[in-house]
Amino acid sequence: MAFPDAEQLTQLLTPKVEEFGFDIEHIKTTKAGKKSQVIIKVDGDERPTSDDLEKLSTAISEYFDAAEDAGELNFGAGYTLEVSTPGVDLPLTAPRHWRRNRGRLVAYEFEDGKTHRGRVGALNDDETAVVLVSTEKKQVVTRIERLENIQRAVVEIEFAKVPAAELEATQEAFVDAEENSAPRED
Q: What Gene Ontology terms for biological process does this UniProt record contain (predicted)?
């Protein structure tokens, strides 16, 4: 069997990672001489603790070793396994990313390539739209944007204190009413 790629490992590991209540966010494999490298980034609605990551890493390592012994996987002479969380530079590409970053400031772009900023609020029930909160002319403004229209989004690192009114607005339930949504200016 050939050295497994990220797609194969994602298919194999998804059920095991889900047993721990996490999602695979990214897998990177590097075939490098005597020691190959497998890097797995996981996250969950409940942020994984270092103890969670250690238990998951042990379970994956045991699974890999058993699969190699059975001839189902081949990492070559050996491998180094790293299991961690993705960090704030993970692009928000799935509804779960938006849900998990509620209250955080994001920079996002539409097809026009202009960067906008807003604080993540609630998602609608089918997780196809999100409330984005910002302050304009000292007024808290909420916008509803369809996730499919957002081309790129990442969490912004903040050093200043989060405005209380913005944070409060992010905790409100999703309300899909045109009068509650300011139009997007293109």
A: ribosomal small subunit assembly; translation
- Assigned fold of 6-84: GMP Synthetase; Chain A, domain 3 (3.30.300)
- Is residue 174 within 8 Å of 123, Cβ to Cβ? yes
Q: For residues 13 and 146, what is the distance between their CA atoms, to the nearest angstrom?
A: 31
Tokens 């913005």 sit at which residue? 166
∠ CA 172-120-42, rounded to 5°: 120
Question: Quick one: 68 exposed, middle or buried, by C-beta within 10 A (0-12, 13-18, 19+)?
Answer: middle
d(CA 45, CA 61): 24
Q: Name the pTM for this structure.
A: 0.79
Interstrand relation of 115-123 and 105-109 (parallel, antiparallel or unpaired): antiparallel
Amino acid in position 155: V
Question: Does an H or E element contain 95, and which?
Answer: helix 95-100
For the stretch 128-162, pLDDT in tens is 999 999 999 999 999 999 999 999 999 999 999 99
